[in-house]
Amino acid sequence: MRVDAHQHFWRIARGDYGWMEANEAVAPIRRDVLPADIEAHLKRWKIDRTVLVQAAPTVFETEYMLGLADAAPFVGKVVGWVDLEKTDDRRHLERFARHPKFAGVRPMIQDIADPDWMHRPDVQWGYDAIVDLDLSFDALGFPLHIDNFQRLFDRYPKMRIVIDHCMKPVIREGRFDDWAAGMEKIARTTPVFCKLSGLATEAAGGWTEEDLRPYAAHVLSAFGPERVMWGSDWPVLELAGSYDRWRQIAENIVGKGPAFDQVFGGTAGRFYRLS
Predict the structure, then answer these.
(1) Which site from 53, 65, 219, 224 is most exposed, i.e. has the minimal number of CB atoms within 10 Å?
(2) What is residue 139's three-state secondary structure?
(3) For residues 257 and 201, what is the distance between their CA atoms, to the nearest angstrom?
(4) 167: closest CA among 154, 155, 178?
């Protein structure tokens, strides 16, 4: 089984994509993106399943994505959203958990001004609920969040966690050492997984394979292929490159053999429990 472990759909008229409305830099992807739009990419790369990830911080977004997943057989799982600042949202988690394609949640931590937000007492119920309901947690943040995420991962060792986009290293400025040390420590001391995704959008314009290779290679070395899964981050990827180019470069870096089978399918299949 081949898996794209991170992609998005959206319909602009739904009106809850605040990050898209307020930022002219993302104007090229401010259009409706629906299941039919990705099918050619999946066919070309022989991808069997995808993981559809939230793009808006609303419960309605999760409901919308589950509806799309019901109608699109290739969508294997949905990573949604609930408000961790509202304990009453446990009822939504419990409701979503009964859907066979619901995987878990992703708080949009990268967009929250307070880097310590994840440790606020009023959001801890959410992590406990994720563990209790045997759901997954997508960790979305920047390098400045690494230490806080380390503390969170240590506090909840039973929570099934995957880091999105390699924690977004600042490739465009050549920052490597602090990010690399933090990621190596997470990989060594926790059972957390990592998505090989989102690197192109963190690089400067005109990036090359060699710009991305040190970061991708470090993640592969630190976590091992059995804890790394490839994702396109399409269509956000289009801000920095094409689906085909990122997929080919990722294949070049990973290489063939057992590592290929894990990174491009096996790891995501196990983590997200894809059939």
Answers:
(1) 224
(2) strand
(3) 28
(4) 178
- DSSP designation for 198: -
Do the Cβ atoms of 106 and 53 come closer than 8 Å? yes
**Which amino acid is present at 144?**
L
Distances (CA, A) of 105 to 50, 137, 215: 16, 5, 26
What residues contact residue 135 under an 8 Å CB cut-off, 6+ apart? 93, 97, 102, 103, 104, 105, 129, 160
In order of their start, the domains of the chain are 3-271 (3.20.20.140)
Q: Peptide bond preceding 235: is omega within 30 degrees of 0, i.e. cis?
A: yes
Give the span between the Cα atoms of 35 and 150, in whole angstroms: 35
Length of the chain: 275
Residue 21 banded pLDDT, cuts 50, 70, 90: confident
Bridge partners of 80, per DSSP, are 105
Q: Taking the model in full, what pTM does it have? A: 0.97
* Burial class (CB within 10 angstroms; exposed 0-12, middle 13-18, buried 19+) of 84: buried
- Which pLDDT does position 48 carry in this prediction? 98
pLDDT at residue 152, rounded to an integer: 98
How far is residue 208's CA from residue 190's CA, in Å, rounded to a whole number?
32
User: Which residue has 């919308």 as its token pair?
Assistant: 64
Alpha-carbon gap, residue 262 to 107, rounded angstroms: 26
Question: Looking at this protein, which amino acid is placed at residue 248?
Answer: Q
What stretch of H or E contains 77? strand 75-80
DSSP state of 204: P
Give 85's contacts (C-beta < 8 A, 6+ positions apart): 120, 122, 123
β partners of residue 188: none
In the three-class reduction of DSSP (H, G, I as helix; E, B as strand; rest coil), residue 44 is classed as: helix
